[in-house]
Amino acid sequence: MTTVAGVILAGGLSRRMGGGDKSLRPLGGKPVLAHVIARARPQVAALVLNANGDPARFADFGLPVAPDVVEGFAGPLAGILTGLAWAEANLPGCRWLASFACDAPFLPEDLVARMLAAVEAEGAELACAASRGRAHPVFGLWPLGLRADLEAAMRDEEIHKVDRWTARHRLATAEFPEVETPQGPLDPFFNANRPEDLEEAARLAALLA
Prior knowledge:
alpha/beta
């Protein structure tokens, strides 16, 4: 894992949550972001938080904060580019960046290892996660060698959708199983986008405790 950096994507506007920082909403007595960090940090050599606005609001988490290098709230692809640029500048010898959504408190603890394995098995350039037959492109593994390619696509071609850019490259998919709970299976990529999702996440967290 010494060649893998990680970025938590928290640069959006959280419109479906009603604005503000959805990653700072409480879940089980601590912010959603704390749950994400606890699962992501052990998987990477270094972790950065991609967030816009005043970084002081994240001071308690002990992570460097990097705002989008592309202006205009350009979506998760901008956060991935930001993470690639941060890793290139701060981690000599780093080869990969893993990206994590800031609102997925149950993300797999073997996410990075399985995406690396998928890249190797399929001879791919990059990877994304999937569950229940659906891809989750914001949970991805990105080579630092494609940073310039991504930056050109975003700045020169105004490509902002993850799928449009990954379609240009050899993409592996790492499929993850559901997590069994006493009340049925849980998608490990469950995300808390709306207030009612937070209520469901609290119920699920109690089942997994």
